[in-house]
Amino acid sequence: MSGRLDAGRLYQVLDAQREAKELSWRQLAAEAGVSASLVSRMGNGHRPDLDGFIALVQWLGMPAETFMVWPEGLRDKQRPSLEAQLAPLLRAEEELTESDQQHVLDVVGITLRHIRAKNKGG
C-alpha cells in the first residue's frame, strides 16, 4: 500500500527553504530538531517517521496537510467544516479567552448558515 505522505514534495520544500536560509542539511536538521540521518534518508526516497514529519513541518511553518496525498475524491468528502478548521487556530491565539473563541466560532457558524440558506434559495 502506498503511503498518504508525499515525502518527495516535503523534501523539495525542505530543500528550497534550506537554500533560501543558506543552511546545510546538517544545520537544517539541527534547527528542526531531527537527526541528520533522517534528512539524508529522505534524500534517498525514504519517508520520515511521525515525530520527524511533525518536527519538519513545524520547522517549515506549513500545515501537515500540504504534504498529504488524498485518494481520488476523498479529500472533498472528508474535508472538515470551516468551524473545525478554525478552532485550533483560535486556541493558538493567547489573547482570546475560551469565551472569545466560542463567540468567534458562533459568529462564523451563523454567517455560514445564512450564506448557505441564501445560496439554496437564490
Automatic annotation (TrEMBL):
Gene Ontology MF terms in the entry: DNA binding
Protein name (Swiss-Prot/TrEMBL): Helix-turn-helix transcriptional regulator
InterPro entries: Cro/C1-type_HTH, Lambda_DNA-bd_dom_sf
PROSITE patterns in the cross-refs: HTH_CROC1 (PS50943)
HTH cro/C1-type domain: residues covered: 14-67
Organism: Amycolatopsis acidicola
